[in-house]
Design brief:
Strand content: 25-35%
Order of helices and strands: EHHEEEHEEEEHEEHEEEEH
Low-confidence stretches: none
Structural class: alpha/beta
CATH architecture: 3-Layer(aba) Sandwich
Radius of gyration: 18 Å
Number of helices: 6
Mean pLDDT: 94
């Protein structure tokens, strides 16, 4: 598990978006700044290949090339908040979607929809799931990727907030999956919301509820 460096800048960004009175525009803008940091850290965990180029002054630079086989998969709906940043950073990247919702009666995650790149099993995957509370949705999404032929070791879980319980559960069930997060929360309340928390990330990012009720 990789926790982003807890810099003053990151703490200031979190302060803005955790404020229940933050405007929808502020929530989106400052969240996207953190998302960019998470994706940069996640991409750095992928394999690189040696690559040489000739510089404008005729010298050889011994560098690295990004892995050509990488896909993004967002867990709908909150995970879609990360798609635009990823597409800006990796032009032409293929992005799949997985829709998982918790059954109101059993409280267990249920798969409703999946659409993945046809060659997803041949490369690495950035799995975009901003909220890791109980870990149930993330594990259900990992099961979908496994069925598509993606080894756990080829998955980087891009996460915004994580609870200690969620990290432990995913770590035990999928120890080879790499996790990148910007914050480890204190825990969860009786309604399985993380505390101090951020509210419903998807609703606040996409503006489907007033920020003051988050």
């Amino acid at each position: 598990m990789l926790l982003l460096p807890q810099t003053n800048q990151l703490r200031a960004l979190h302060t803005v978006i955790r404020d229940k009175n933050a405007s929808g525009r502020d929530f989106e803008v400052y969240s996207r700044r953190i998302i960019r940091l998470l994706l940069e850290a996640g991409l750095d965990l992928l394999p690189f290949e040696k690559c040489e180029v000739t510089t404008p002054v005729g010298e050889t630079y011994h560098g690295l090339a990004f892995t050509p086989r990488v896909s993004g998969v967002s867990v709908v709906r909150a995970g879609e908040s990360m798609e635009a940043e990823l597409r800006d950073m990796v032009p032409g990247i293929s992005i799949g979607k997985i829709l998982i919702q918790r059954d109101k009666r059993t409280k267990q995650p249920e798969l409703f929809y999946k659409h993945l790149p046809s060659d997803i099993g041949a490369g690495h995957v950035l799995l975009m799931e901003p909220m890791l509370a109980t870990g149930g949705s993330a594990l259900a999404a990992l099961d979908v990727l496994r069925e598509a032929g993606v080894p756990d070791g080829n998955v980087v879980l891009i996460n915004f907030l994580a609870s200690p319980a969620g990290l432990e559960r995913v770590g035990l069930a999928a120890p080879d999956v790499k996790i990148v997060t910007s914050s480890i929360e204190d825990g969860m309340n009786e309604n399985a919301f993380m505390v101090p928390g951020i509210g419903d990330f998807g609703d606040r990012f996409f503006g489907t509820v007033p920020a003051s009720t988050s």
